[in-house]
Amino acid sequence: MDSEDKAFTILKCPITVPISLEGTQDSNHNKMTTEDEVKEVNMYAPDIGPKFYPVKGNVVTAPIITKNLPEAFSSLPICGRPESKDRLEQFQDQKIRDYVGGGLSEEEFGKLAKYCSPNHLRTGKELIMDTNLPAFGFLPPKKDDKVCEEGNQLNIVKKFKLRVEKDKTNLYVKKLKYRGMRLLPLTTEDEDNDEINGTPLEPGKDILYRVRFYRPFMCGKERNNSRHSVFTCDVVVSGQSRLSALRERIVCANDVDVRVDVSANPTELPQTTAKELFPSGFMFINNVFYVDEREGRVDYTEPIRLWAQRRAMGDFPKVDMHQVRLQDLVIRLGHPEVYIHQGNCEHLFTFSEVRLVGPAELVMAEQLPRHTAVLQHQTVYCTTCAEFGAKWVVVGCPRVPFDPAFFCDTCFMLYLYIDGKKIGDFKAYSYRGNEINTLKPLG
Fold it and tell me: In this structure, are strands 288-291 and 318-320 parallel, antiparallel, or unpaired?
């Protein structure tokens, strides 16, 4: 697993977290009670039960009981939401003042805030970017040259510039693993929109999860492995959401098409999709099968669980994903999990982050789950004109030097049909892969 895929979390060590100090202070702030018992919350579950495969490494955490996060940090001044975004700074100052206590005056509290300010950690040479979103490529854009004058003197930037000067055919950029990734940050413009009736998440009590999905691959003999897992999308989901809601956010080209040969009459395309015909699927998270058992679905996991029992591997539990919320899961950050649908289309995914909602985040519950990063898929163009996006996949055609071959609508009808009747023996399938691309290639 590359460094980009490491799990970012403060929960790295199997420790218990003190959550409350049972000492109280009177109105004059002159005395404290003698009780200072500390209640401890265990954030980790025992790693027991059957396993299909052991995964070890410094980027994989122990099983985390995520629903204990709000209780573990309940003593910190992170709960609550200001009346408006304009009062966020005053709101946070008051929360810290109440947490510190001691009956400090305005002047004393101002001095304390000044002494404890993170600005003391600055050196004065930090790079200041006008945006936190990466631009296309790996070098700073020209408009940031003035801002990044000191950054341009870094050795790593100089090395990159030398590499770009020598790379006349632009081959190096094609080797970058995340060269096509685009960030889609959570927006807060709709927070004050009266048309949205969603309930805002409560800071300090609600939990956010970040899930990274990777490109699917076929299981069995036709399995095609690349040298590494290819990132496809990043999804942020709240702990209140059901696991089935997370499943609905997974975009896969195998769901949008029906593999039916329509070469005899290409004008009569199927009116349904593969996801509607075959809606079954399951997720395998922390050695538990979460099956979509809603109406019309079948259980893919039954033969797998029976297979494991016959080989004395253990009894793997099965849970209905529509009855489980994210906050009820026991997860391992950085651990590869599996999502399977359409029979044998397998996606790997990982939980890369779990944290509490902060006071500065104005996130609506109805806005989640949502994508925050996607892979910029390249458009598949017609192999004949190389000008328009492909709409058809042709297989077994003797008149085409490629198998399979992609065609746009115009080339497909002009080259393979005469008066609406196909020429020769071939199979044709509709192709909608270009339609699900979230971002198109840059012009």
Answer: parallel
Residue 121 has φ and ψ, to the nearest 5°, of -85, -5
Please report, for the chain, how many H helices and E strands are present, in that order. Answer: 9, 19
Element (H, E) at 114: helix 106-115
pTM to 2 decimal places:
0.73
User: What is the C-alpha to C-alpha distance for residues 394 and 426, in angstroms, rounded to an integer?
Assistant: 7
Give the C-alpha separation, 357 to 371, whole Å: 17
Cα 43 from chain centroid? 23
Q: Which helix (H) or strand (E) holds 172?
A: helix 171-174
Give the tens place of pLDDT for each residue, 273-315: 888 888 899 999 998 999 998 888 888 889 999 999 898 888 8
The encoded tokens of residue 102 equal 């001691």
- Look up tokens 């004065």; give the residue: 124
**Band of the pLDDT at 177, cuts 50, 70, 90?**
low
Give how far Cα 148 sits from Cα of 126, 141, 160, 163, 298, Å.
10, 10, 15, 19, 56
Geometric angle at alpha carbon 170, from 166 and 173, rounded to 5°: 105
Give backbone dihedrals phi and psi of 427, rounded to 5 degrees, phi first. Answer: -120, 145
Expressed in angstroms, the distance from the first to the final Cα of the chain is 33
Q: Are 396 and 426 in contact (CB under 8 A)?
A: yes
Considering Cα of 103, then 105, then 106, then 107, what sign does the dihedral take? negative
The pair of structure tokens assigned to 441 is 């290639």
Return the residue matching tokens 């009956």: 103
How many Å apart are CA 46 and CA 436, to the nearest integer?
Answer: 41
Tokens of 419: 């008066």
Q: What is the per-residue burial (b if ≥16 Cβ within 10 Å, else e) of 251-278?
A: bbbbbbbbeeebbeebeeeeeeebbeeb
What beta strand segments (E) does 216-327 contain?
Answer: 217-218, 231-238, 281-285, 288-291, 318-320
Residue 146 predicted with pLDDT over 70? no
Encode pLDDT of 20-44 as tens digits.
Answer: 333 334 434 443 333 445 568 888 9
> 70: part of which helix (H) or strand (E)?
helix 69-72
**Which pair of structure tokens corresponds to residue 433?**
């892969």
The pLDDT value given to residue 354: 92
